[in-house]
Please model this.
Amino acid sequence: MANRPQKFRYSKHNMDYVLLAVVLFLVGFGLLMIYSVSSYEAGVDFNDSAYYLKRQGFSTILGFIALFFVSRVNYKVWQRFDMIALITSVVLIFLLLTPLGVTRNGATRWLDFRIGLTLQPAEVAKLGIIIYLASIIQRLEEIGKNVIRTPKGIAIILVPPAVVAALIYIISDNLSSAIIVLGIAVAMLFVAVPDYKWFIILGVIAVAGVAAIVIMATTGSADGGTFRMARIRAWLDPEAYSTDRAFQTIQALYAIGSGGIWGKGLGQSMQKRGFLPEAQNDMIFSIICEELGLFGAYTIILLFVVLIWSCMVVANKTTDRFGSLLVVGVMAHYAIQVILNIAVVTNTIPNTGITLPFISYGGTSTLFLLSEIGIVLNVSKKCK
Model:
């Protein structure tokens, strides 16, 4: 009797392979681009063209170790540490005010533990907020489904991340991370409370606040106001500030424009040769556009879309509420950070200084982003 062809059976772990494949490609591509972008500057500053690549490679190894460890730990364990995650995030931010705080480019955003290890508290806070909110939302829903829909319930959810975001902004002068923390909170609340009137109210308040800030910036004097106001004016009229505040943005736009459709070729960028400051950090996407063109840029964007979509599939198929909310928080983190980075590089929004996940240079960011992938992989094991 002839063997009948076996039908393909959907496996709950299929999404693991898609997610892992995308992450591996993005991380590998990121290491390649970091070397391509930073080799000239590293050679000039440190006499070692692979200086940034070696440091990022070490952080990446630690990140994959963390990913493997976290993916093997039952995600429900993290619910026991919800308050610890929140308190630890706050404590680390306050440690920036101690001698452990390291100031770079005028901002104190890193902790140096004097053992060859530096840590950026804002990255810890993003994961801490995800764990805390996933836990507190589930606990509120267990009390009663309508509790979370009340003003008190919404305040319980939004106040802690708002406080953490305010501390990040005030102490470390890191507006982009503060926005991401708030964005994660709003996204998780949106999933938990499908009541659009609250989000319409929040949206109106946010738009009104942004409009007021822009008006204040445009009516102020050219040299007056705060540093943030100056950045907004440089965003609105970059050519007027092309030699100072908008210099980095202008150079990034030159890189994007000169790449065309197919790019100049890997390693052939001119802007990375001393024209675009610290291109391996926030502005690495512009060098991708210059060397690989719009084709390369759209390919990377498509991979991020697949990554976010994979997280959404896991969140939808997970039967446990806490696990689903964890994945929603991770998905929101990636989506917000990618959108903000590309918007900054293309001058769609004012320059806020934010990295492109898995691709930009940044040890702490890579470590915690890969750890979050580990959480998603563990949650996916509980899919239907």
About this structure: The chain has one domain: 15-380.
